[in-house]
Specification:
Blueprint (H helix, E strand, L loop, with lengths): L2 H9 L3 E2 L7 E3 L4 H10 L2 E4 L2 E8 L2 H6 L14 E6 L5 E10 L7 E8 H15 L5 E4 L4 E7 L1 H11 L25 E6 L5 E7 H11 L4 E3 L1 H10 L36 H9 L5 E8 L9 E4 L2 H4 L3 H4 L12 E11 L5 E8 L7 E3 L4 E7 L6
Parallel strand pairs: 3-12
Antiparallel strand pairs: 1-2, 3-9, 4-7, 4-8, 5-6, 6-7, 9-11, 10-11, 13-16, 13-18, 14-15, 14-17, 15-16, 17-18
Helix pairs in contact: 2-7
Length: about 375
């Protein structure tokens, strides 16, 4: 995160995470207040995301051979797409959009992912991109990613920047035909489908510095936790360093979210993923759950505790980690995303074995886990 943008956010009360320089953890409201606000009000959020720009004559062909989604279907819409290893496990998960190229022969794509994943992912993409006519770079110092919550703030942004958020429409406005890619003017608003009206805005940092004070007059600045909560409620998964190269696309419902194509041809990990689709019985899925505690982390395991606890009254009266025997516990799932909820508990997306959905579940520190529903997926 560039210094002028960080300084502006701090002027409006932002407190940053000590370990992650671009993660806003507090904006003067507790997480419960933010959760309520985002479900029925207007909010703006500085998101800890980075955009990777892939451009060049071979951009579509290159990405088509790397990602799980079909690039032919990404024109005015965005899509989720997975970058998998040769074993079919997800190395990175993107929200992808195509933008207008300054040269007619070139196609440009923006790949949005958590900032903590950006450096390693760019390095990996460049390793394979060396054999294609593509340019790959992280726009770390060029673009800011904002979360917009509520129709009022989304409409205001569209009017102010003259960009469009029609379903998931992406519009790019170069500032002049003579601009090169390093000075391109991106104004891209991607509306996220779902019951809660929210969108992502990709904007050049100087424009963001001018826009933020205007938006604070009609919307409340919130921490990144509020965005995580909205995404979890919408059933949208994410991959972070803690879950990198560990999860198959089917286990977090990516085929149901139109993030996997089974007709476009080969890409990294395609053979394993296709075999899962046509020959394997999918036994793990994405579930929304409530955790009775606030100490959990992404990548933590979900367990069925040992029989002695399951068969006693201890489970219902409350247990702690000192009562658990790791050697006798069965790991049945993983925390994919989590956020503080309105009642001082934690809401999470879990990658979970279907056989465990009726079992009593705990986290590694003994907090109980209550499944809310399975996320079978909608088009994202």
């Amino acid at each position: 995160m560039i210094a002028p943008w960080k300084n502006l956010l701090q002027q409006y009360g932002a407190i940053f995470d000590q370990k992650s320089a671009d993660l806003v953890v507090d904006f003067g409201h507790n997480h419960s207040e933010e959760a309520k606000l985002c479900q029925r009000g207007n909010a703006i959020i500085s998101l800890p995301y980075t955009l990777i720009e892939v451009t060049g004559n071979d951009a579509k062909k290159f990405l088509q051979g790397q990602l799980s989604c079909n690039l032919e279907t990404i024109t005015t819409d965005s899509s989720l797409g997975a970058y998998c290893n040769i074993k079919g496990r997800i190395s990175a998960l993107f929200r992808i959009c195509q933008v207008q190229a300054l040269e007619p022969s070139q196609i440009t794509y923006l790949l949005r992912l958590p900032s903590s994943m950006a450096t390693a992912t760019v390095t990996e993409l460049k390793k394979y991109g060396a054999f294609s006519k593509v340019s790959i770079r992280a726009l770390t110092d060029d673009l800011v990613v904002l979360g917009l919550v509520g129709a009022k703030v989304i409409n205001a942004v569209q009017i102010e920047l003259k960009c469009v958020a029609d379903h998931v429409r992406a519009t790019n406005h170069p500032s002049s035909a003579s601009d090169n890619l390093t000075t391109r003017d991106y104004n891209i608003c991607l509306q996220i489908p779902g019951d809660i009206n929210h969108a992502e805005l990709y904007i050049e940092h100087q424009q963001a510095l001018a826009l933020w004070p205007k938006l604070t007059k009609i919307a409340t600045p919130c921490s990144a936790n509020a965005w995580e909560l909205l995404e979890i409620m919408a059933g949208i998964p994410e991959i972070y360093p803690e879950t990198k190269d560990a999860i198959l696309p089917h286990y977090i419902n990516l085929p149901a979210l139109n993030a996997v194509s089974f007709t476009k041809g080969c890409y990294r990990g395609q053979e394993i993923i296709a075999r899962m689709q046509y020959r394997g019985k999918i036994k793990r899925h994405l579930y929304t759950a409530k955790l009775q505690g606030t100490t959990q982390s992404i990548g933590d395991s979900i367990y069925i505790p040992q029989a002695a606890i399951l068969d006693s009254a201890l489970f219902d009266s409350g247990i702690d980690e000192t009562m658990l025997d790791p050697a006798q516990m069965q790991s049945v799932g993983t925390i994919i995303r989590l956020a503080a909820d309105t009642d001082n508990s934690t809401i999470a997306l879990l990658e979970l074995s279907d056989t465990a959905t009726n079992a009593k579940l705990v986290t590694n520190d003994g907090c109980s886990v209550s499944l809310n529903r399975a996320n079978q997926g909608t088009t994202i």
